[in-house]
Amino acid sequence: MSEIPGRRHLSRHVGWWLARAAARRTAAAAAKHPYAWLAMTVVVGSLLLVAIPIGLTMSAAATTPPAAVAAPAPMPGGDAPAVPIATLTGHPNFSASPAVLADLDAGIVDARVVALLYAIVQRHTIHAGVIRTGHSQCVGGGSLEQHPMCTESHHWYARAVDIGLVDGRPVSAANPSARALVAWLATAAAEHPLRPAEVGSPFVEFDRLPGFWADGDHGSHIHLGYCGPRWSRGQWEATSC
Ligand SMILES: [Zn+2]
């Protein structure tokens, strides 16, 4: 812990300074009233008992961080390695819709999504179609105003992405590259901190894995999402994963 040069020195001498001033007053008073020296000595002693602890306390305060300082808010993405937006968007294996690029440029996208996309483009070429802009607020469509009991999509919090093309071909059950990507997420990346909590795809063979599913809504894209607090069925769902 660093400290401000000279501050400790100053505070440690506060007690000494107060005592010296009191001693001078004592000497002056004793010169005028010889029998008052005893009472003034008691006063000086009392001042020393008060002033020295004050000086020591100030000295300690100068080197101890304030207890009231709140911890900084965690960065989006938790422990995910930070990947600069330009590093992702400038990668030759990455392409995206104008809406995704706008979300990325706006700096609203969860760092885990950015880092995951960057990890994926080391293996495949991909095209990201949607993050937040262009996606409904509610899972299944519509807004919370329209459907007060809906569950908000993680897209709404910019912590999910839909990938429509893998290695130059549309995502479908017939795209082996798309399947390889999902298989990588299911196996090689299973213990990786970047493993998404949600993997929706056309590939039913991964349905048994936690967070993986295949349905008609994900026959033509791979949905990758991360957990976080969201409004769900009339209350906050404080998921953190
Ligand atoms: Zn999605």
Count helical runs. 7
Total tally of structural domains: 2
Shape assignment:
globular
Question: Care to count the β-strands?
Answer: 9
**Termini separation:** 33 Å
The overall average pLDDT, rounded, is 75
Low-confidence stretches: 1-77
| Biggest beta-sheet profile | 7 strands, mixed
Using only C-alpha atoms, the radius of gyration works out to: 33 Å
Bound molecules: zinc ion
SS-derived structural category: alpha+beta
Instruction: Name the helix and strand elements from N-terminus to C-terminus, one letter apiece.
Output: HHHHEHHEEEHEEEEE
Helix content: 25-40%
Strand content: 5-15%
Report what the structure shows.
With 241 residues, this protein is α+β, with helices and mostly antiparallel strands. It has two domains: 7-63; 85-237. 36% of the residues lie in helices and 14% in strands. It contains seven helices and nine strands; from the N terminus they run ααααβααβββαβββββ. The strands form two sheets. Strands 1, 2, 3, 4, 5, 6 and 7 form a seven-stranded mixed beta sheet that branches. A hairpin with a 2-residue loop joins strand 8 (230-232) and strand 9 (235-237). Residues 1-77 have low confidence and may be disordered. The chain binds zinc ion. Zinc ion (ZN) is lined by residues 155, 160, 162, 223.
